[in-house]
Amino acid sequence: MSGTGRDLEAVSRFIERFAQVLTDAGMPRIASRIFVALVATDAGRLTAAELAGLLRASPAAISGGVRYLVQVSLVHREREPGSRRDHYSVSNDVWYQTIMQRDVIIARWTDSLREGADVLGHATPAGGRFAESVEFFEFMQQELHEMLDRWDKRRAESRAQ
Questions:
Q1: Domain encompassing residue 116
Q2: In terms of domains, do 81 and 100 share one?
Q3: Over the stretch 57-87, which tens digit does the pLDDT of each residue have?
Q4: Same-domain pairing of 22 and 66
């Protein structure tokens, strides 16, 4: 991040504040810090050593945080041909991709909830809760798909300008 003319201390404070927001939402602290650092880097790409230096964290902490982020598909591991160093990166549309991945999870939940409603019986209180949950998630998925379609159109229009 050096050479950008940015106030590096201000950037560091921002990374910590935004990471705390993600931590408060349930993401592990070091993973939050790594993710924000990558998003806040112009290249969207850093090595483990660069992350450790930027975040003043141990290599072991970076390794654990990166492992979590790769598992949840927020970060990608890359290696340049002939290099022994891994680079960790985020895509420019990381938020869009994250929402798209959650759509698959919601579909799986919906299938399980539907099965629960069938097994418990739709007319029972427990089965009714499951059935209403199915309705909610089906509604949410439909709205999500429509919203993402609108976003695709908006993004295309914005890029065409």
A1: 94-160
A2: no
A3: 999 999 999 999 999 999 999 988 888 889 9
A4: yes
- How many angstroms separate the CA atoms of 68 and 31, rounded? 7
pLDDT < 70 stretches in the chain: 1-4
Q: Residue 35 class from Cβ within 10 Å (0-12 exposed, 13-18 middle, 19+ buried)?
A: buried
DSSP string, 49-79: HHHHHHHT--HHHHHHHHHHHHHTTSSEEEE
Amino acid 154 reads: R
- Last residue of one domain, picked from the residues 89, 120, 135: 89
Structure tokens at 63: 């390794």
Say yes or no: 55 and 69 in one domain.
Answer: yes
Is residue 126 within 8 Å of 120, Cβ to Cβ? yes
Q: How many domains does the chain have?
A: 2
Q: Cα angle vertex 141, ends 29, 124, to 5°?
A: 100
Check residue 124 and report its DSSP letter: S
Dist CA 138 CA 32 (whole Å):
30
**Rounded Cα–Cα distance for residues 118 and 131 (Å):** 8
pLDDT of residue 64: 97
